[in-house]
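Structure request: von Willebrand factor type A domain-containing protein, Fodinibius sediminis.
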Amino acid sequence: MRKDEIVLVIDKSGSMAAIKDDAIGGFNSFIAEQRKYDRDASVTFALFDDRYQLVCNGRDIRGMEALTEETYRPSGMTALLDAVGRTIDRVGDRLDSLPESDKPENVIVFILTDGRENASSDYSRDKVREMIEHQESKYGWEFIYGGANQDAFSEAGGLGIKARNTFEFEASGQGTRRAFDESSEFVARYRNDLPENEPKKRK
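Returned structure:
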């Protein structure tokens, strides 16, 4: 059976506190929607502020635990570049170690943030762009970017993420719910539309 890898890099900096409940609800709805597809999926989930938390790396989507007020506590600043860079490295290393038969057909990375980068120390913008473009061109990964309180298209473009995979959302309860709904639609499109006779190269 074909399998997908869904990678979620989600902001939990202090500014997310005002929309915390909707971020939690939106995330849980996203997972519930992706579970409905008749194909296997693994989930890698990272949270970030000015620290990095890899919640899971390649967990079966059926075993994903709901996000709660205990596990999602906004604080700190926005080390977006470090979060994206570390996540790409960790997922890439894990997929490298898998036998070919266990590697996913699709790797889809969704990044959501309500603010611009202001705290990274280990990964530069140029480095992350290079990493994203490498994964896209060599292994067919797809990157999706949702941003609030910024020009999301400019920010995503600076990271090498396609405009067609970018959207802006309002940093409100309703806007945050819509952001997760929209990201779920993006992910569903890539999970459904890969031609059977044109497999992507797999890392």
